């Protein structure tokens, strides 16, 4: 333990591209640890085995390292309370679940997915919030034993008090009260033997001696479940702090459907990590006008967890651009600037791969900027006229773009082979020739109908940049189609 005893953690799930919201929460925990002379820990929460992948875990670690955050314990550096990956801790949770069941605070549930779906449908039809109806709550011990002996699949759920409310003090929201009838009988252990997020979260925070849990406000409603689990296990809960969600300028939740949210998007466009951390850190400090440009040490000095806003952190891209420009102009020497530019160009083998694809397609080196420039541009500034040379009508182009976007999100490992396979599958499902599907994609991705090979280009640019370019292309083509009747 540290002299202050403070131990905080960031616990991302490796189920997709690392989100700027993860960096936002991680930065708060990092600054909190530095401010109190404590420890900042990284734990990978991969209880969702169907969506968690090693590729996404690597992306999480790389993204947080790019942000300049350093952890004293984690899956890559080890530590005294490991393992730091929940799938490697599967053997730990069973005894805690059994303790809850043995004490009468949990029960076996044999409800099938079909029954649960019918239950939820009925609740929705009656305008009731969907939650478990207690169907298996009062099964006898003999019936539970015989059904388990017969190999019937089951989960373990937690019991919830029938009356009253859960009262707790949050580090941001102050005194909070949530009635127990608003809390679901949460699954603690899944049928495959893996714990749910809620169970693993509590056990891991206890075993890793976490003193303060700082996370997004979307988890505020889950606190009663967590407090109950601590209570059922006879453990002391940590201090909870729930930070306001990052939002768009219109106060809507920041989401990839509206704006780029992946950290990899901002790295690809040439934002520098100090500027992004500076931008996110301003949500946690009180400063006067003119003091916006701040290093991590300056953010730590000004950091005040006792005076946080509940109004919501507005992700203002124009302010980020302004800060990034100031960092480039005012904080980097010429030598450092040149080093950053070269490092950025070489990221993900962008320059190397782009040159390899270009070599057989040029007659002189001066043609390289026009051929490969799209790999390095922040914005293609696509005009609807860019799609004029495509034989398909605008309606068909828009259909292709809108079909391809969600299908590409299904790809787990983003590479040339998986991209090609998915686009061929899209063409088959749409009943179109592959060349018809890829024609508008060439323009959307490169800004031209003739460019480097499409699948390779998409792999080099990365999922986040491709997602944004396809979205902007759809908007451009939609203006040709006009509004729906």
Automatic annotation (TrEMBL):
<comment type="function">
    <text>Catalyzes the attachment of glutamate to tRNA(Glu) in a two-step reaction: glutamate is first activated by ATP to form Glu-AMP and then transferred to the acceptor end of tRNA(Glu).</text>
</comment>
<dbReference type="GO" id="GO:0005524">
    <property type="term" value="F:ATP binding"/>
</dbReference>
<keyword id="KW-0436">Ligase</keyword>
<dbReference type="InterPro" id="IPR001412">
    <property type="entry name" value="aa-tRNA-synth_I_CS"/>
</dbReference>
<dbReference type="InterPro" id="IPR004527">
    <property type="entry name" value="Glu-tRNA-ligase_bac/mito"/>
</dbReference>
<dbReference type="InterPro" id="IPR020058">
    <property type="entry name" value="Glu/Gln-tRNA-synth_Ib_cat-dom"/>
</dbReference>
<protein>
    <recommendedName>
        <fullName>Glutamate--tRNA ligase</fullName>
        <ecNumber>6.1.1.17</ecNumber>
    </recommendedName>
</protein>
<feature type="domain" description="Aminoacyl-tRNA synthetase class I anticodon-binding">
    <location>
        <begin position="339"/>
        <end position="472"/>
    </location>
</feature>
<keyword id="KW-0648">Protein biosynthesis</keyword>
<dbReference type="InterPro" id="IPR033910">
    <property type="entry name" value="GluRS_core"/>
</dbReference>
<keyword id="KW-0963">Cytoplasm</keyword>
<feature type="binding site">
    <location>
        <position position="256"/>
    </location>
    <ligand>
        <name>ATP</name>
    </ligand>
</feature>
<feature type="short sequence motif" description="'KMSKS' region">
    <location>
        <begin position="253"/>
        <end position="257"/>
    </location>
</feature>
<feature type="domain" description="Glutamyl/glutaminyl-tRNA synthetase class Ib catalytic">
    <location>
        <begin position="6"/>
        <end position="322"/>
    </location>
</feature>
<dbReference type="InterPro" id="IPR020751">
    <property type="entry name" value="aa-tRNA-synth_I_codon-bd_sub2"/>
</dbReference>
<dbReference type="InterPro" id="IPR014729">
    <property type="entry name" value="Rossmann-like_a/b/a_fold"/>
</dbReference>
<dbReference type="InterPro" id="IPR000924">
    <property type="entry name" value="Glu/Gln-tRNA-synth"/>
</dbReference>
<dbReference type="GO" id="GO:0005829">
    <property type="term" value="C:cytosol"/>
</dbReference>
<comment type="subunit">
    <text>Monomer.</text>
</comment>
<keyword id="KW-0547">Nucleotide-binding</keyword>
<dbReference type="GO" id="GO:0000049">
    <property type="term" value="F:tRNA binding"/>
</dbReference>
<dbReference type="GO" id="GO:0006424">
    <property type="term" value="P:glutamyl-tRNA aminoacylation"/>
</dbReference>
<feature type="short sequence motif" description="'HIGH' region">
    <location>
        <begin position="12"/>
        <end position="22"/>
    </location>
</feature>
<dbReference type="GO" id="GO:0004818">
    <property type="term" value="F:glutamate-tRNA ligase activity"/>
</dbReference>
<dbReference type="GO" id="GO:0008270">
    <property type="term" value="F:zinc ion binding"/>
</dbReference>
<dbReference type="Pfam" id="PF00749">
    <property type="entry name" value="tRNA-synt_1c"/>
</dbReference>
<keyword id="KW-0030">Aminoacyl-tRNA synthetase</keyword>
<dbReference type="InterPro" id="IPR045462">
    <property type="entry name" value="aa-tRNA-synth_I_cd-bd"/>
</dbReference>
<dbReference type="InterPro" id="IPR049940">
    <property type="entry name" value="GluQ/Sye"/>
</dbReference>
<dbReference type="Pfam" id="PF19269">
    <property type="entry name" value="Anticodon_2"/>
</dbReference>
<comment type="similarity">
    <text>Belongs to the class-I aminoacyl-tRNA synthetase family. Glutamate--tRNA ligase type 1 subfamily.</text>
</comment>
<dbReference type="InterPro" id="IPR008925">
    <property type="entry name" value="aa_tRNA-synth_I_cd-bd_sf"/>
</dbReference>
<keyword id="KW-0067">ATP-binding</keyword>
